[in-house]
Amino acid sequence: MTITLEELRRLVGQELAVTEWLEMSQERINLFADTTDDHQWIHVDPERARRESPYGATIAHGFLTLSLLPQIVSDAIQLTDLRMALNYGLNRVRFPAAVPAGSRIRARIVLQSIREVEGATDATYAVTIENEGSEKPCCVAEWLARYYK
Predict the structure, then answer these.
(1) CA-closest candidate to residue 98, choices 135, 55, 66, 132
(2) I need a labelling partner for 126 at 20 to 30 A (CA). Which of 10, 12, 59, 67 fits?
(3) Could you tell me the pLDDT band of residue 73, with boundaries at 50, 70 and 90?
(4) CB-based burial of residue 140 (10 Å sphere; 0-12 exposed, 13-18 middle, 19+ buried)?
(5) Can you give the residue ranges of every domain in the chain?
(6) What is the pLDDT of residue 71?
(7) Rounded to an integer, what distance in angstroms lies between the CA atom of residue 31 and that of residue 100?
(8) What is the third-level CATH fold of 2-24+68-148?
(9) Cα 40 to chain center, whole Å?
(10) Is the pLDDT of residue 139 over 90?
(11) pLDDT average, residue stretch 13-33
(12) Secondary structure of the chain in HEC code, one letter for each residue
C-alpha cells in the first residue's frame, strides 16, 4: 500500500495490510542469537531441542519476531510524503505461541489511532503476527511510529 500521511489518517480502525509470508529460518535465529548473545539451547541447538523441548524443534526468540515489526510495517505501508519515520515504541506485547525454526510468519496490521504531536504525527498500529498453520498468533503488539513531514 502506497499512500500519503493524509490518506492514512482516514484509515483509522481499518486493517491496512496482510503481509507476505516470511520464513523464520534457523540461520536467521542463529544470527539473532549472535547479535543479542542469547544462545539458549531452545533457539540454537536443533538436536537438543528435538529431544527435550515441548516444540520438538528450535524456536525463534520472541524478541526476534518483535524486532521485525518496523520492517514488516514499512514493507506493507509506504508513506510517500515523509521526511523521516521512527520506531517510537510499544504499548503492549505478548507472545502467545512459539515460532519453530523453518516455519513461516506474516502480519496483519490495523491502524488503531493517529494523532498530531509537536512537529510530528504519531500512529499506533495493532500488529498480529501469525504463524502458518497455528491457531494462536505468535506475537501481538501495539506498535507506535512517529512520522515527520
Answers:
(1) 55
(2) 59
(3) confident
(4) middle
(5) 2-24+68-148
(6) 87
(7) 15
(8) Thiol Ester Dehydrase; Chain A (3.10.129)
(9) 22
(10) yes
(11) 97
(12) CEECHHHHHCCCCCEEEECCCEECCHHHHHHHHHHHCCCCHHHHCHHHHHHHCCCCCCECCHHHHHHCHHHHHHHHCEECCCCEEEEEEEEEEECCCCCECCCEEEEEEEEEEEEEECCEEEEEEEEEEEECCCCCEEEEEEEEEEEEC
CA–CA separation, 12 vs 123, rounded Å? 9
Locate 121 and state its grid cell: 504525527
Q: Residues near 70 by Cβ (< 8 Å), separated by ≥ 6?
A: 87, 143, 145
Cell of 101: 525454526
- CA-angle at 81, arms to 75 and 84, nearest 5°: 70
Report pTM: 0.92
d(CA 136, CA 1): 26
CA 140, CA 81: separation in Å to the nearest integer? 28
Terminal C-alpha separation, the chain: 18
Length of the chain: 149
